[in-house]
Amino acid sequence: MAMPWVDAEVARVGRLFADGRLAHALLVGGPSGLGKRAFAERLAQRILCRDPRDGLACGECRDCRQLQVGSHPDFRRVSFEERKDGKLRTELTVAQIRRLSDSLNLTAQHGAAVVAVLDPADAMNANAANALLKTLEEPQPGRFLMLVADRPERLAITLRSRCQRFAPRPPSRDEALAWMASQGHPRETAEIALDLADGLPLRAISYIEDDVIALQKAVRRDLGNAATGKQAPFALAKEWMADRPTLRLELAVELVRELGRKKLATLEAPSGLTARVDFPKLAAWADRANRARGLFGTTIRHELLIGELLLDWRVAFSESAA
Ligand SMILES: [Zn+2]
Description:
This protein is an alpha/beta fold.
C-alpha cells in the first residue's frame, strides 16, 4: 500500500542516513492514524536495503525480501509479548529491553546496520525506560532505534531528549482523498470519515471499517435529544457506556467543533425540537468532554462522568420556540 506522504518523509530521513547525519535514537511520535508505523517500517527497510532507489528501499534485494517475510537478521521489533495465559501484556518490560540491548551488541550479520523498532514505546514501564536510557547513553555506530509512540509526551523527558524526532507530515485534504479513492473508498464516505478523523487518512479508513459514521449519527441524535430534554442524561450515559464510550465523546467534541465552524446557532433534534446554542458554554463543555476521555484509563466511575457531562450538555442549550 503506497502512502505518498509517508514515503516523502522516508526519503528525506533516508538522505540524512546516507549522509551519516541520522541520530541513533529516533522518536516517531504523533496521533494514531497518521502512518507512523508504516514510516518506521519503511525507514528500517530503507536503512537495510542494499540498493535504494529514489530515496526508498528497492523492494527486491535480499534484505528487502527478508524484511518483507520477517526474517531479516538485523531487524528487531519489540512489542507486546504474550503472557503465560496467552493474553498480550499491556506494557513493554525491562526483560525485553535488556534482550534488545544485548542483541544490539552483536555484529550486524549483513554488515550495514542493525535497526530496532519499539512499538508502542510509550507503553514502556519505568524499569524498561531506565534500561533503555542506559542503552541510549552508549550509542554504537550502525545501530538505529526507533521509538514509535501515539503519546510521546508519556515518555520520560530524559529519553525524549536523546532522540531525534520524526513523523510523516499529514497529507493535504486533496492528497488524503485521492489516496482513499485509490484504496477503493467512495468520495462521499471518504470525506465524512476524513473530517471525523481530523484529516488522518489511516484513521479515516479504520472509521469506515468500524462503521463509525453510523455511530456518529447515533451520537448526534442522542445529543439532540439531550439538548431538548427528550432523553434523560443518565439513561443515555448507560447506553454510551455499553458501546465505545470514549469514541462517542470524541464524536461529540467533533460536533461542537462543527457547530462552531459553521456558526450554527441552533441544533436540531430528531424530535423536531430546536435548541439554541450558547457557544461559550459549549466550548467549555468540549474541554470537559476531552478531559473526561483522558480519565478513561483510571478507576473513576465512567458512567457517572458521562451522565454528568450529558446533563451539562443540556445547560449549554436553551430551548427556542423555533
Ligand atoms: Zn532493497
